[in-house]
Amino acid sequence: MGEAAGHRGRRPPAADSLPVVAGAAAAIAGVGGALALADIGSPLRAPFTLFFLIVAPACAVGAALRSLDPLSRAVIATGGAIAVDLLIAQTMLALHAWTVRGGVAAVAALSLLLFLLAHVRHHRGRAARSRAS
User: Fold this and answer.
1) Sign of the alpha-carbon torsion through 58, 49, 30, 84
2) What is the pLDDT of residues 44-61, one digit of tens each?
3) H helices then E strands: how many in the chain?
4) If we measure between CA atoms, which residue out of 104, 97, 89, 86 comes closest to residue 49?
5) CA Rg, the chain, in Å?
C-alpha cells in the first residue's frame, strides 16, 4: 500500500522518459537522413538511414491517425511507412532514376508533405469546431 500511495497523483516513471526516447529517435533518424544525403561514409550510415526510412513516414502517417488508439496507430503507421518506402523505390526504379540519395530525399519530402497535410487538417478541424460552438 505504501508503494502505491507514493505514486498517487504523479505520472508513472515511464511517462517521464517518453519525451527523451522520442527525442533520441528523432536525433537518430535525422543523423541517418543527413549521412545518406551528404554521402558520408560511416559504419552508422546504414542502420541510421534504415531507421530514418521507417521512422519518418511512420510519424507522418501516425500524425494523420490521431483518432485511433495508440497500438492501432503504431501498427498502421509502420505498415504505411513500409508501403511509402516501397512505392517510392518502385516508382524510382520504373523511371530509371534510382539513387540512394534520391530515395532518401523522396521519402523525406513525401513524409514532410504528409505530416504538413495532417497538421493543416487537424487545425482546420479544430477551427471549424470552435466556430460551431
Assistant:
1) negative
2) 999 999 999 999 999 999
3) 5, 0
4) 104
5) 19
Model confidence over 20-40: pLDDT tens digits?
888 888 899 999 999 999 988
Residue 68 DSSP one-character state: S
- For residue range 58-71, what is the model confidence (pLDDT) as tens digits? 999 999 898 899 89
What's at 27, amino acid-wise?
A
Q: Give mean pLDDT, residues 98-116.
A: 94
Q: Where are the domains of the chain?
A: 2-132
Side chain identity at residue 36, one-letter code: A
Burial pattern 67-80, b for ≥16 Cβ within 10 A else e, equals eeeeeebeebbbeb
Report how far residue 55's alpha carbon sits from residue 29's, in angstroms, rounded to the nearest whole number: 7
pLDDT of residue 17: 80
- Separation CA 129–CA 133 (nearest Å): 6
